[in-house]
Amino acid sequence: MVTTSAVAEAKVSANGQVDNVIELEDLHVHFHTKLGVVRAVNGVTLEIPRGKVVGVVGESGCGKSQTAFAIMQLVPPPGRIVAGKIVLYPKNGPPVNVLRYDRNSDEMRAIRGGHVSMIFQEPMTALNPVYPVGDQIMEAILLHQTTDKKEAAARAVDILGKVGLPNPKRLLGTYPHELSGGMRQRAMIALALSCTPDLLLADEPTTALDVTTQAQILDVMRELQAEIGMSILFVTHNLGVIAQMADEVAVMYLGQLVERAPVEELFDEPRHPYTRALMRSIPHLGTPRHARLNVIEGGLPNQYSQVPGCAFHPRCPVAQPGLCDVYQPALRPVTPTVEVSCFLYHNLDGTPVAAPTQTASSGTGPPLGDALPA
Ligand SMILES: Nc1ncnc2c1ncn2[C@@H]1O[C@H](COP(=O)(O)OP(=O)(O)OP(=O)(O)O)[C@@H](O)[C@H]1O
Ligand SMILES: [Mg+2]
Prior knowledge:
Blueprint: E1 20-33, E2 36-49, E3 53-57, H1 64-71, E4 79-88, E5 96-97, H2 106-111, E6 116-119, H3 133-144, H4 149-162, H5 168-171, H6 181-193, E7 199-203, H7 211-228, E8 231-235, H8 239-245, E9 248-253, E10 256-262, H9 263-268, H10 273-280, E11 332-333, E12 339-340, H11 355-358, H12 368-371
Parallel strand pairs: 3-8, 3-9, 6-7, 7-8
Antiparallel strand pairs: 1-2, 1-4, 4-5, 9-10, 10-12, 11-12
Helix pairs in contact: 3-4, 3-6, 4-6, 6-7
This protein binds adenosine-5'-triphosphate and magnesium ion.
Magnesium ion binds at residues 64-65, 203.
């Protein structure tokens, strides 16, 4: 039940439709530890369009998982959402200000599993080892959709079949430990999809699987995503998976978004120096055997320290002294569909940098690509 205080104002597009399934605004997640404060998510603003897959990429520890956990209000202690706004636009019903609810409230429980569900890298995070798979899926359906047990069982069989599990009727009584790793992952996806969520949060869901199973599971997720019309926030550090799954990509560095772009544009013309370095670190077909892979130079700073200026400037080959080490660039549009936070593209006052530098990566401006680590 949504109380009026949690009803947010809907963002309506020109055609009168709400476009986004969720909007995160200036989200901050902090971990207060004995050694200091870790700013795991440091001002993330991100919208997920309805029916689309948004991929989140970035190095380990950049805040991808905590961003997803914040949406469910499942940030583990000592972590806390200290600022920001999360507005969910359910298919049926008014928009909801998620953070107005207590994390242990009935309303929050109704959102988890009702409108938003999550799949993890490790299926046993979600599956309970002491109950048969079917019981767990039926329980979710009975909690959120119907009180009719027969109907719930039929829906559970249907969803187990949809994720490509053989003999789904028999699986109703099967325990998680009786399944292989790939089957368990499919069962967890079935559990997450059993409530036909508006938004699925997928946190490295295939990283632990062999490549064949990984490809099958990604196919299943894409098919079901199109069929149910849900949106997915797909968290991974694997750019190959992003290319296959995502419509749009958000690149994260040290708790902040540095670039957002449609997937083709990001791969065709990565703009932020960090994104470009990330792209260069992928081995390509044709890379000679035994060739040294490109690495992003420098290391991540101490997680308790706050880097002044642009968080990437200590590792950036084109950082401008007096600017990038002092001021923090905001994420601003570079084209109608691409946003980048970098002073190569915007001046301090937010105005676009004159054309030659703006088109640096297309080859007509300064040789940004050449300046990056080879
Ligand atoms: N319990 C904790 N105590 C202190 N810091 C934490 C805790 N959990 C996470 N963090 C910090 O929060 C930051 C973001 O973590 P997060 O798990 O979101 O990273 P990630 O991008 O998902 O990385 P990975 O790719 O390794 O999963 C990290 O710097 C991490 O050290
Ligand atoms: Mg993670």
